[in-house]
Automatic annotation (TrEMBL):
<dbReference type="InterPro" id="IPR029058">
    <property type="entry name" value="AB_hydrolase_fold"/>
</dbReference>
<protein>
    <submittedName>
        <fullName>Alpha/beta hydrolase</fullName>
    </submittedName>
</protein>
<keyword id="KW-0378">Hydrolase</keyword>
<feature type="domain" description="Serine aminopeptidase S33">
    <location>
        <begin position="52"/>
        <end position="203"/>
    </location>
</feature>
<dbReference type="Pfam" id="PF12146">
    <property type="entry name" value="Hydrolase_4"/>
</dbReference>
<dbReference type="GO" id="GO:0016787">
    <property type="term" value="F:hydrolase activity"/>
</dbReference>
<dbReference type="InterPro" id="IPR022742">
    <property type="entry name" value="Hydrolase_4"/>
</dbReference>
């Protein structure tokens, strides 16, 4: 038996050379047992960990497949891990409603366990940069705010928060964000949470990404369908509850970087304009609510970025990577470098 197998790691079926580890979870509050989460790691993670690690969290209708993102961080001294949350991606099982939860706080369980696994592997002083996209960009700040207050020992391992087009508000007509609509949604969710929202989702964004359509990226369409998974009332209510909490102001307790496109373009059909804009979320809402994360927030619009800025056209994603590198050097990594200088002076 290999060392990886003995520690619970197995070869990934989706990415060559990557490894996965199943995280067992407790009973599903939404009654779709059994549930697990899946931690993914780039090979030889410990050798990359001069600046600690990255824990990447995907969005809705998503899973981790983006190797260039992992390679970028590994080349800059960060061991790379990603998590497919319960009922998502590699963790999705036949009995599950894809990406379904009625409370975003449920994800605290697998996120906390992922932190513990990374620290156990890399050492007790390991610092972790949390990176998250879209719905993951709402889940993780709320989790860190709770972690700061309720579990400071775990929170001490978090060095920063990188958000990629976080879902901070409900896009669409203003009436959808009114109190009566929110209360009606909550009432339906309390009795029929798996009711599907009767709205057809556009496949334009998916078409702009996938290499068998119009894009350049290869991923499994059963785990990330072009038109997305159906949105349930219970899930949307959980998201709206989280968004309202964020809007009142939270404190993630670490420096934060928010990346987004410089424009939004909603369309029912693909066109070239979809390639150079956020076709999923309203970037004005992201800009409006980014300040609610705490006291050390940097927000940067990336020219011509897609909804996932790291899956954008080449010049946009290159800008996004430059912005990340500059922010890390000025904030998170500056503390590590100063610690190295202090240690050298003492010796």
């Amino acid at each position: 038996m290999t060392e990886a197998a003995a520690s619970g790691w197995q070869p990934d079926h989706f990415l060559d050379r990557y490894e996965v580890r199943t995280i067992d979870l407790g009973p599903d509050p939404d009654g779709e047992d059994p549930i697990t989460a899946t931690l993914i790691r780039r090979p030889h993670a410990a050798a990359d960990a001069r600046y600690g690690a990255v824990l990447y969290v995907h969005g809705f209708t998503d899973y981790f497949f983006h190797e260039p993102l992992a390679e970028h961080f590994a080349e800059r001294g960060r061991a790379f891990y990603a998590i497919d949350l319960r009922k998502c991606g590699r963790s999705l099982q036949d009995q599950h409603t894809a990406h379904f939860t009625t409370d975003l706080r449920c994800y605290d369980e697998e996120l906390g366990k992922a932190v513990d696994i990374i620290v156990d592997e890399l050492g007790p002083d390991t610092q972790i940069l949390v990176a998250a996209h879209s719905t993951g960009g709402l889940i993780t700040p709320l989790w860190l705010d709770r972690l700061r207050r309720d579990d400071p020992a775990r929170h001490a391992h978090i060095s920063g928060l990188l958000l990629n087009s976080p879902w901070f508000d409900l896009q669409g007509k203003p009436v959808l964000r009114t109190f009566p609509v929110s209360m009606a949604l909550k009432a339906i969710a309390s009795v029929k949470p798996k009711t599907v929202i009767p709205q057809e989702l556009s496949s334009a964004y998916g078409e702009s990404l996938h290499q068998d359509s119009r894009g350049e990226w290869s991923y499994d369409l059963t785990l990330k369908p072009l038109g997305g998974f159906p949105v349930t009332v219970g899930f949307l209510d959980a998201v709206r509850t989280g968004q309202r909490h964020l809007h009142h102001g939270i404190d993630v307790g670490v420096p934060s970087l928010v990346l987004r496109s410089d424009k939004t373009y909603f369309s029912g059909e693909y066109s070239a304009a979809v390639d150079v804009a956020d076709a999923v979320l309203d970037v004005g809402q992201i800009a409006q609510w980014s300040g609610c994360l705490g006291n050390r927030v940097t927000t940067i619009p990336v020219t011509d970025a897609r909804h996932d800025v790291f899956l954008s056209v080449a010049h946009a994603r290159e800008q996004a990577y430059r912005e990340v590198d500059a922010w890390l050097a000025a904030t998170v990594d500056a503390d590590v470098d100063q610690a190295d200088v202090n240690e050298a002076e003492e010796n």
